[in-house]
Amino acid sequence: QVQLVESGGGSVQAGGSLRLSCVSSSAKYGSYCMGWFRQAPGKEREGVATLYIGNGNPTYADSVKGRFTISQDNAKNTLYLQMNNLKPEDTAMYYCATDPLPSCREMPSYEYNFKGQGTQVTVSS
After folding, report:
1. Smallest Cα–Cα separation from 9: which of 99, 112, 125, 116?
2. Which of 10, 48, 73, 108 is deepest in the core (most CB within 10 A)?
3. Is the pLDDT of residue 54 over 90?
4. CA 26 to CA 2: how far, in whole Å?
5. Mean pLDDT over all residues of the chain?
6. CA 34, 36, 39, 45 torsion: positive or negative?
7. Nearest CA to 61 among 29, 103, 23, 109?
8. Among residues 69, 67, 66, 23, which one has the least CA distance to residue 49?
9. pLDDT in tens, 69-106
10. Separation CA 69–CA 53 (nearest Å)
């Protein structure tokens, strides 16, 4: 069982930045997918970014391209999401997730097998 713990959320003004972290309880080897998704009140879950651990190819939702960057530090078992130029519409609970998939495109990140409890991001205008 993999446990994921997110941190780094908070309240910022539009145009600000936050860096989310997701620590995994266990070291993993080989290739697998990690990703971030978000859910705002009254809205559907939205995949934000994924990273295939193995070849490092990131993918981003159109809504965050050019503003968010997903990265990982394997030595620290940590996944990051750097969020710049935040907008009020980015306000949501952010979750990290992981699954040993052969490709991160097989399913959206919110359907990955292991998910964290989330960290809240609030962006005010």
Report:
1. 116
2. 48
3. no
4. 6
5. 93
6. negative
7. 109
8. 69
9. 999 998 888 999 999 999 999 999 999 999 988 889 88
10. 15
Q: Tell me the three-class secondary structure of the chain, residue by residue.
A: CCCEEEECCEEEECCCCEEEEEEECCCCCCCEEEEEEEECCCCCCEEEEEEEECCCCEEECCCCCCCEEEEEEHHHCEEEEEECCCCHHHCEEEEEEEECCCCHHHCCHHHCCEECCCEEEEEEC
Q: Check pLDDT > 80 for residue 56.
A: no
Q: Please, which residues have CB within 8 angstroms of residue 111's CB and are 6 or more apart in sequence?
A: none
Strand partners, 115: 97
| Gap between the terminal Cα atoms of the chain | 40
Residue with tokens 């080989």: 30
